[in-house]
């Protein structure tokens, strides 16, 4: 099924909800207004629709292949990556000083959604490279930045993140890879890293591994972890990266999905040790890695949006074509396209509402990131920084969990055909399942939401969000349309449930951590749905405002937006008050269950 | 991961909730008391644990293979099927007159759960054979019964159901396969059938295809469909099945899951026409097929229970072993097995509660089936028949939808390991996805629930169920324990939400079918969760009653049952009132969405 980039919805969200026009008033983003955004999105759409999307199924059927330490990517990927790099897409959000375009994250996120919709496995390679660039921009020396960032931006080299080891997954305190300091200031690394996405491949000349390891004598736990650059190829006497470093891919994983993306087991130091260069200071590696991980977590959330969009498009196209059964209302005696059946509409609208809600929350968060960095008012920068930080676990956790449901519904719309791999719908479910796991499982995001994002500031950001939602509620009350009234009622009830939960977390977080953390994922899912619904409420208001002066395709788009927002209100927001109790009162059953009884 | 049959829980449900002791008082089931049940379950467990379960992964990695019209099953399956047949398992629920054991469906369902937990792909072959036997028992002539049932019961032959054609999936009115009557009273069939589970294989000597087709001149639509027996092998002059019939497997599907189970495309009448024998009367095929489908739908619901149980066992075992991260309550400074983390407990308890709730509702429904056939009181037979009929779409729809969530949570408990195929958790998700599709998608079950099971009797059965639930509520009120009090509150609120929804369906079913059917799947899921929760409430009461006199393992089991019921109350039943509105008021958004806007 051909992929069509959802530019109209992206621009609507960027202009109406994320206020791209404001971003273009801040220093550094003067050229990044709505017209630039539209031009960039259209150009990106061309690459995604014509080059990347057609390779998505091929990547699943003919995955990356390991052969004696080498990884051969799916045929076509190398050429696609060349076009991606030549188009300048790797540098979209990165500073012009290093060859990037310096565009806002808001535009970058919209493009990233498209690339991921088109080909999730492919998109992971640039995603990880972005992370490596981000880490070096934050903590690398000027020399390191100059040496590593430009070749990554121009696509000659790519980047990876090396955190996980067999015994150290979510728990990085257990990292054992060791780094031995050499006389010349460099280090030699020894250890095994697993789950290294695009950790070995043939798309680029060199791979810049960003690796967590322990220097001899470092403190135990997370305070003794340092961050190193370990290039696959080291410079020769002429400064050309031609000398093979002692890091080798010993195997790649056989996975449920994202099969074109090689997931490498990397062995460091089988011989003399892998040459590595310390980033920043010793023992501050986790801090630097968190910068990278924060960006990557947001990016994975966008992958969720992307996956949902693709699965929705696939299912809607099938539902329009597949003829089966007479309508339940008896309006005709013949079988009709299944899109006419109410339950198929319910499934498609669930998929669509979650996709649009996820997109709106992700893009509004991206705009907050831009404001946090570029807003002229320091108070606004700080407020936006807090909001963005609160949003990262929600975007990562909610958008990815939702994408799994959306992909599953996508199969269901296809009926028996959905279970047959040739149809293509099943790949989305298989691909989606990793999203709620890598870069921190949903539980890890929920820990972050409870601990660092709610308890640490005493609920200030959570309450601030609730206040912003109340502003939207007042606007809904002012509209008076039946859809706005329904949304008003659902949003108010959901916001109240959220505040109840926040108060519960604040009251019991210290004294009864087990009870609070037992509800942490439900809290995350409730918060995510609330924020997505809030954005759909704002979308409803904006659409109602624009509709009287709109015509043709634009008017149809706005009417569909209103209907989709209404659906979100009744079917998603409406369920939230019922989830409150399971968080606030749901831990008693766990307390009654001895561990040995499971 | 080794599979361990959950005999203790099955016997608890059979004895305490499904009242096996009563069944053993009815004529024909005198030998089917609790002791027989225990012996049969233990024997079945041995076969499942030692023979079938170890082949489950092999079937996924080395699926059935098509080669020039022949299908070669996974190595080991043929020998396993021989042991299954020799053990008499195919005849468990079938009449002794034909070589079966004549045991109640209650015992048969418990055994079926084990077989499916052990190896879902394998279990599909006997499941379909059961359907063919059922159809012949109901509608076959004495000669047909004598000729086909005994060899199916003794495992020399197997059976299939042939409904679907490329253009006729959920909508059987579109069936085109044609049957031409011959001078000798037999028919010749011509057409293509797809999605035929175990439609061709090497496990048995012959395959008895039960095929829907149209006789020339038959009425249009479902009223012109007849049912035929089309054996793969026809009898020779000596009556031995040695002559190849004109039905051929032209390919098998490449599927997301249940890969060991060949899903055949069967071509009837490529040459002279496939010889078929009419079952019952012409044009009543759909009626007969529905008998078979009703049994198969229930059986697929049990597959859902089975899949959930297996996924739970796998995840719980991993959570006990995998050490990662310190506890959030700071009780120790070292990393602990992840089962100590509250969110892992929440996931495992969600899996466990849904598994036990599904099992309880499925087995209680099986007991109603037995009562409907064997109870000495005709009024009780009728009441149980109505209850069982209402339960079939719930068991099929709810237990299978839930199994998908359980399998997905099972992967999540494993973290990154879950996404790696070697771990085994991913297979359960891939296998589970078919369960909500085949034998009628969840939407088809929901149509049945709304139309035939709710509207047709004016809500009488639905209201009767609500009254039974009120009886349980009164017993909970009488208990006074904190767990019973919590359950009471949740069950009452859920039952009221259910009645609201039933009244909505009754009021608007005729006048606003689109609105009612838009909420049909949510109505099914709410009803399923309510009935499962009701059974968990009864389990809680029974466990509280038994606990004072129980010791050791038994007491531990009962305490875990109480905790699991409490979890079901807070986390599943608690969410139901919040789903009411999406059903009762949720169709306005669909009405606002023009079809071309999707």
From TrEMBL, chains A, B:
One of its GO terms (molecular function) is flavin adenine dinucleotide binding. Its cofactor is FAD. It comes from the Bacteria. Residues 283-449 form the Acyl-CoA dehydrogenase/oxidase C-terminal domain. Keywords: FAD, Flavoprotein, Oxidoreductase. It catalyses: 3-(methylsulfanyl)propanoyl-CoA + oxidized [electron-transfer flavoprotein] + H(+) = 3-(methylsulfanyl)acryloyl-CoA + reduced [electron-transfer flavoprotein]. Residues 35-155 form the Acyl-CoA dehydrogenase/oxidase N-terminal domain. Its EC number is 1.3.99.41. Gene3D superfamilies: Acyl-CoA dehydrogenase/oxidase, N-terminal domain, Butyryl-CoA Dehydrogenase, subunit A, domain 2, Butyryl-CoA Dehydrogenase, subunit A, domain 3. Residues 161-267 form the Acyl-CoA oxidase/dehydrogenase middle domain. The keyword Flavoprotein applies. Belongs to the acyl-CoA dehydrogenase family. Involved in the assimilation of dimethylsulphoniopropionate (DMSP), an important compound in the fixation of carbon in marine phytoplankton, by mediating the conversion of 3-(methylthio)propanoyl-CoA (MMPA-CoA) to 3-(methylthio)acryloyl-CoA (MTA-CoA). This is 3-methylmercaptopropionyl-CoA dehydrogenase. It comes from Azohydromonas caseinilytica.
